[in-house]
């Protein structure tokens, strides 16, 4: 329904898609301006930073397209309209994700994917079949990890009622963090992103293997292939948190 209503005004859709593309591209413009003044960032070339940017940007864009509406769940909890979703014979998460579905968010996906493809052309890497296969696996695993964080953040709003910024700190904030090489950040922060909230498996860990660089925070080389496992654990944990959140929902009482 939302897709059909959006496509009714195709010029308006095209303009919003273009504006979404342009708005997200400003993050990459910052990187372009930075490399107009320096040759490397923490020892990473422009192509390598673009590779990190494109990988996390594409993964986050896919998750935002599919589940970006989950961040609005707090409003439904506060005004009691979540009740209408609970009585329908359709999974609540599917309804929340489809509510006001915004195809314009494809702009973020296209922009991230364009940078990723461009970086692959520029990279000077000794490609092997294993490294080639790791690139799409990394993007899909990152998509699942970001999606799981969004679902867990939505479930948190069952209790907090207005806690969307908590989830945004790990999704939008994590996406911004992972656009840059881990060597430019404090090691305590890197270890936290690797071992505490392992968002590093979105791109840092597998991407550094592709680039032939040392894994962050002392991880072994085989950890580059653990992203699907980490994504599976994230999804399982998010599903459990979501079920607990739904069961704890008590409506507004009015």
TrEMBL record:
Keywords: Membrane, Transmembrane, Transmembrane helix. It comes from the Bacteria. It holds the Pfam family ABC2_membrane_6. Coiled coil: none annotated. The chain crosses the membrane at residues 12-38, 50-68, 109-127, 133-156, 189-210, 222-242. It comes from Streptomyces ficellus. This is Transporter.
